[in-house]
Queue: 2 jobs
Job 1
Amino acid sequence: MKIAWQNCSSLNDANLVLFGVSSSDASLYKGSEKAPQAVREASHKYYSGATLSAERFVLLPESGVIKKGLYDFGDISKGEIVEFVSRMVSLCKVPIMIGGDHGCTFNVLKALNSLHKRFSLIYFDAHLDMVSGEGHFYGSVLSDASRLKYLKLNKSACIGFRAFREEELKNARKNRLLLVPASRLEELSIARIFSMIKRRVYKNVYMSIDIDVIDPAFAPGVSDPVACGITPLQLCSLAKRFARLKLMGCDIVEVNPKRDKNDTTASLAAKLLAEIAASIK
Ligand SMILES: [Mn+2]
């Protein structure tokens, strides 16, 4: 099954290439390996359908159209990410990944690092993911990423976090990562937060969304829920603004269908994908 918003039938014609990674090996709980299929299914179940005369329709994003060609490549394994993303970028395509555990993001960043161009990371997460050591697991993504030469964490931002250990905060500060905790999104306007982050980041930006950044009331289907999260609209509004920058690629990870309630989280991830795809320049 392909995502409902696919609007071109071959990789050649596509500007945006969606792919899934069926992996949960870096997650505390199993389940995120089922996310790519659950998100695709939710895109059909909640945002597309057929008329009585069997004519297919798809519900549009807010802007009314996905102008860019979007192609759903299907799923690849975690071990194939580096090569796949490198190939997509060399073909001037924007890769959009559905995880999988957050560890998948490190492999994408590794591929982008091999372009030898400085780039920034915009990282939405309930957690700081800065546990020390070369962990290559969901809790050490940013620590692992800090060792990539061309990814500049001092020109990057972590948004929406509210659960971290003392050493993670120390590591984040040492790397001069711009920290925007969840409560800041309630205190400041989205426009202000966006302009603050935009001033900080390079032109080349990768955006990673751990769906647990959203409050568990809206996104119960995650492995490690944390209360006092941001709202779907806050995330959507910010993510769309970032998508209008020169986005190298993006991902939505850590949807866990095994813990989801009535597909709430999968359907939210699908909606976000459509809104982001429609906003990418
Ligand atoms: Mn994470």
Note: Residues 93 and 161 are 30 Å apart (CA to CA).
Job 2
Amino acid sequence: MELKVGSKVCGFTVTRIREEKEISGRLVEMTHDHSGAGLVWVDNGDVNKLFSITFRTYPENSTGVPHILEHSVLCGSDKYPVKEPFVDLLKSSMNTFLNAMTFQDKTMYPVSSRNEKDFLNLTSVYLDAVFAPAILKNPNIFYQEGWHIEQGEDGKLSYKGVVFNEMKGALSDVDDFLTEEMISLVYPDNCYGVNSGGDPAVIPTLTYEEFINTYKRFYHPSNSLVFLDGAVPLEKTLTMIDGYLSNCGKLTDLPCFEYQKPRAAERTVDYALAESEELQDKGRLMAGKIFASCEDPVKSMAAAVMFNALTDSND
Ligand SMILES: [Zn+2]
């Protein structure tokens, strides 16, 4: 199919095309006519075909609501009403990648396969998961993936939950714990300062109602960005995506956040040691600084390389 700026294709309009030597192909940008969602296609003929949908998810607290949503939407949907479609796909599809990730400011759902039929099936399962998840009708998914109270054999009550347990494990790592403390100090005023994965001390304050309201606010077609890579069957893929993106009206007030104004601060925190560990020489010092904004990728990349070389290994 001949694509040029202004071309209308399966509910989308092509807005920009760039030949890019670096990716051995062209970068095609489109906007979905009905919802305003963005789409980027790396058209480089790669036989490995990738679909990814990402939502802006800006948390206001450390209940881990974006992370619990990431887990929960993959626990069944209208068209795929099985308990664990994610686990089924891991076992039965020919995927070359299948996962979901929660970042501090976005949640991403990527799948890929070299087989066209498999690629379309994976894309269909993921689209249905994010736009028609079973969580809307079944609160038990939230309690299972987020948090609930269980009685142990000794009669004692304790918090359990997939994300709750996962984050308890993650924050028992001293480096991760101190990094969370550091970013909350550097970003006291926006989503970057809270723990999007969830702080086990805060996770149990999240209610099912707040969970569903957060889903409705962020998992809207207008708040999504689709990324395609490789030799995808373009018309079939876009038609499938259009079917989901055209379901709702256009959102006019998209989620946004304020840039953090740099400010000086310091904090001393305690961390736990195993009983077998000596107390001696366990003090740590961390320093953090806002270096560049995301709109300055060259400076950000240079900083990452420099900090890696200076401090990221024992050498
Ligand atoms: Zn997780």
Note: The longest strand covers residues 12-20.
